[in-house]
Automatic annotation (TrEMBL):
Superkingdom in the source lineage: Eukaryota
Keyword check for Metal-binding: yes
Chain positions recorded as Mg(2+) binding sites: S10, T27
Provenance organism: Parascaris equorum
Cited SUPFAM superfamilies: P-loop containing nucleoside triphosphate hydrolases
InterPro entries named in the record: P-loop_NTPase (IPR027417), Small_GTP-bd (IPR005225), Small_GTPase_ARF (IPR024156), Small_GTPase_ARF/SAR (IPR006689)
GO molecular function: GTP binding; GTPase activity; metal ion binding
NCBIfam families: small_GTP
Chain residues that bind GTP: G3, L4, D5, N6, A7, G8, K9, S10, G54, N88, K89, Q90, D91
PANTHER family xref list: ADP RIBOSYLATION FACTOR-RELATED
Ribonucleoprotein among keywords: no
Alphabetical UniProt keywords: GTP-binding, Magnesium, Metal-binding, Nucleotide-binding
Stated name of the protein: ADP-ribosylation factor-like protein 4C
Length: 148
């Protein structure tokens, strides 16, 4: 689980783990928690979630955590700054137009299954969809990888 500092990553982790709001201090380093949903389509699956600190000095470590991951949960503070997605490498012949990129993001980033999940870590609203959705996205990604 990645995101800039103060986005709410640890609050989400501990809301999921303890089923109630736990006030968090900024994460220095990382937290690691295992989850095993007891219902829904992800029932019985084990999810190991690494909550990596979002401070600028820790961001170079993100790559290390993502390397062996099956999925990335990127948390943004939806009350914070606007998010801009840069469609880079426009000089290459296979580059997509901004309209095509916008459509791809709406459908999933490139060939990567993507889902935007609105939630509230304080109340837990929307978090019950996290593991079922992540399970589906991981299965889709693995299926696509086998076809290649």
């Amino acid at each position: 689980m990645l995101g800039l500092d103060n986005a709410g990553k640890s609050t989400i982790i501990y809301r999921l783990k303890m089923d109630h709001f736990v006030q968090q201090a900024p994460t220095v380093g990382f937290n690691c928690e295992k989850f095993r949903p007891s219902s829904g389509p992800a029932k019985g699956q084990t999810f190991v979630v690494w909550d990596v600190g979002g401070q600028e000095k820790l961001r170079p470590l993100w790559r290390t955590y993502v390397r062996q991951a099956d999925a990335v949960i990127f948390v943004v503070d939806s009350t914070d700054l606007p998010v801009i997605l840069l469609a880079n490498k426009q000089d290459l012949p296979e580059a997509r137009s901004d309209a095509e990129v916008r459509q791809s993001v709406a459908q999933g980033i490139g060939k990567r299954p993507t889902h935007i999940l609105p939630c509230c870590a304080v109340t837990g609203d929307g978090l019950d969809e996290l593991f079922p959705e992540m399970h589906q996205l991981i299965l889709q990604a693995r299926k696509s990888a086998k076809k290649r």
